[in-house]
Amino acid sequence: FLPAIPPTLAPPPVSTAPPVSTAPPVSTAPPVSTAPPAPTSTAPTGTDRTPESPTAQPTGDVYPEDTPRAHTDARSWLPVELLGAGLTAAGLLWLLRRRRLRRQLAADLGDLPPHPTPAAAGAEAAAGGGADLDGAEFLHLALLLLAATAEHTGDDLPDLHTAYLSAATLDLHFAAPTSLTPPPPYTALTGTHWQLPRAVDARTLDPDGTLADATIAPYPGLTLLGYTTPTAAAADGRVAILIDLEHVRSVHLRGAPERTDAVLRFAALGLLTSGWATYLQLTVAGLPEPLTDAAPDRAETVDDLDSPLTVLETQHASQLARLQRGGAPTLTARITGAGPAPHLLLVATEPASAAQADRLADLAYPGPRTGIGILSATALPYPGLTID
Fold first, then answer.
1. Cα dihedral sign for 367, 371, 376, 379?
2. DSSP letter string over 330-385?
3. How do residues 273-326 score in pLDDT, each as one tens digit?
């Protein structure tokens, strides 16, 4: 269901929408040394759009068998199939522990510690068994190191497209070469492909232990879409696939509704509990489970698209105007505290009208990074990326 990653960790055969003024290129699997191209189009004008979006074709059945697909209780946001869910399970485990600590601190002196509900206890046990706590911390510090380095040198942050996390390495693929010099212990394999060995420990990445307190997370829209299925050829086992939803602007998930909804739930829970997102707003439209109960300060659930579309349109327009006035790129502005927090929209419902569908399509059309992103099971005419 998700694109397979060969053992060399090459990007899957995906690309962002081509420029409006050119015919769509033939999509082929890029070589190991090349990241998918960046979108170079401007905001949609309603005319002269390219006729077709590139599609990521699966090269094997890599739909994560351990993606959360069910709940013990329809009233609960806590998924039970978290064994092996890796980074998402780690985020959920951190969230549950933080909640328990807050309840304990709020309790009166002498009160018994609050007991978790059976659903919460079951989810915590499952998350504890499948959580990749080391991987989540490693990814968080690795991204913070990039932000801290860019802030120190004054260089623009590289525009991240895709990240792959395995037991051996973190591989970052950027949309274009960057002026930023890779901070040790990163290695630039090419101008758009940097690699960091997992053998590097936290004290090497963050010697003073101050990165998390002093640095704003640069890529909060980095979205875990699943894992490859381990194969005999992949010595490092399965690989986590993360797409920067802000960069690609929109991803259209195609497939049976139960499978696309499962990926949306998995992505939503990962974003809600993400440890590598300092600031993030998430709107989930059309999923029956109240997933946003996991982090109500970060997210909301809606049945209709009108309100979230208005919010995204406002942010998109204001950030485009800022960029047109010569403002700093969104990523650079963000790490200095002047950029927007991303607002991501996950869509599992059909637009209520043709006008609403047009508004969604306009927002989903690839363009400059403005702090918005859309992951949709609903058809988009010109998505930045399509996954079958």
1. negative
2. HHHHHHTT-SPPPEEEEE-S--SSHHHHHHHHHHHS--S--SEEEEESS--SS-SE
3. 888 887 899 999 998 766 656 677 788 889 999 999 999 999 999 999 999 999
Nearest-angstrom CA–CA distance, 269 and 217: 18
H/E stretch holding 224: strand 222-227
Pairing of strands 169-174, 193-197: antiparallel
The beta-strand segments (E) located in 113-213 are: 160-165, 169-174, 187-190, 193-197
Q: Exposure of 27 by Cβ count < 10 A (0-12 exposed, 13-18 middle, 19+ buried)?
A: middle
- Asked whether 137 and 202 are in contact (CB, 8 A), the reply is yes
Phi, psi dihedrals of residue 223, rounded to the nearest 5°: -115, 125
Nearest to 50 by CA among 12, 22, 31, 14: 22
Greatest CA span in the chain, whole angstroms?
71
- pTM for the model stands at 0.75
Nearest-angstrom CA–CA distance, 305 and 4 = 32
Closest CA to 295 of 312, 270, 260: 270
Six-digit token pair at 289? 């489970």
The closest alpha carbon to 257, from 286, 280, 234, belongs to 286
pLDDT tens per residue across span 128-155: 556 778 888 999 999 999 999 999 999 9
Cβ-based burial of 113 (10 A; exposed 0-12, middle 13-18, buried ≥19):
exposed
